[in-house]
Design goal:
about 290 residues; 2 domains; about 80% helix
Length: about 290
């Protein structure tokens, strides 16, 4: 894993990909920092970081698009998968390399609260906590982008798909308002979600029997639960899918200086899930 990590870090800085990614985040954050904190005298850098979420969503696909798509397109993936290393080593080596590149602008951001403190009062604790949460959110984004890069040969498709998924997460709280509220509508919605999960399992494992079996069992269980107590299905989709709202916890810290530890757990879980899906994607091709 160390060899893969070192090679990937070097590759990001031997090309313009790493410097461009770092430049985008630092330049845009610097502009917001200058206008909001230095010119207008707002003492909280956490608010500046809070305004950078959309830019993070734009920048991360640039970083992750080549992680596996390039190897697959150049057929270097075949050599990599036949090497005497585990798939976990390959995936984690690439993942931590991207995290290391992302950590560079985050470390630079840590200087901004100190700059604010030289001119007056600064809230170092909440500002650094916001930077830490921003870093964890970026790690989750990187895992998602890496997985999407592992299922295509095109870097462009990987970047566009990553941006699309991250955009949906960005708008998740607003989209939740359009989820059905009736019990029957939520039952249908939950069955659709189960079908999508079964399709995802089939795409990764290529085992139709397990995929169909899981879909049938969960669908029957949902229908039985609906017949027993239909009222429990009212607003169920909003409650269930609300766990994927990745922004509320961050916004509360950025704007109100309130740290929600569930946001930390959510970001770490999302990062692990993205890494796990990437491993499964490569495992399928390794033994194909």
């Amino acid at each position: 894993m160390k060899a893969i990590f070192s090679r990937e870090v070097r590759s990001y800085f031997q090309t313009m990909l790493g410097p461009v990614f770092i430049a985008i985040l630092t330049a845009m954050t610097g502009i917001y920092f200058m206008v909001l904190n230095l010119v207008n005298g707002y003492p909280y850098f956490s608010a500046t970081i809070g305004n950078m979420l959309f830019m993070l969503m734009v920048a991360v696909p640039i970083l992750t698009m080549k992680s596996f798509a390039e190897d697959r397109h150049s057929h270097a993936e075949q050599l990599m998968l036949s090497a005497p290393v585990t798939v976990w080593d390959i995936v984690l080596g690439k993942y931590f390399a991207m995290v290391a590149v992302f950590a560079i602008p985050c470390l630079l951001f840590c200087l901004c609260p100190l700059i604010i403190m030289t001119g007056g009062t600064a809230s170092l604790g909440s500002d650094w906590a916001a930077i830490g949460l921003y870093f964890l959110l970026g790690c989750a984004y990187i895992a998602i982008g890496m997985f999407l890069s592992s299922i295509t040969e095109s870097q462009l498709i990987a970047a566009v798909a990553s941006f699309g998924v991250l955009l949906v997460l960005y708008l998740w709280d607003a989209l939740a308002e359009y989820f059905p509220t009736s019990a029957r509508g939520n039952l249908i919605g939950m069955i659709v979600i189960v079908a999508l999960l079964a399709a995802l399992y089939y795409a990764l494992a290529r085992n139709p029997y397990v995929a169909v079996g899981v879909f049938v069992i969960l669908t029957v269980a949902l229908i039985i639960a609906y017949l027993v107590s239909s009222t429990t299905f009212e607003g169920l989709m909003a409650k269930t899918l609300g766990t994927f709202d990745v922004y509320t916890g961050f916004v509360e810290l950025a704007n109100y200086r309130l740290l929600d530890l569930t946001a930390v757990v959510r970001y770490l879980s999302l990062a692990f899930f993205g890494v796990f899906l990437t491993v499964q994607s490569l495992q399928k091709r390794r033994w194909a």
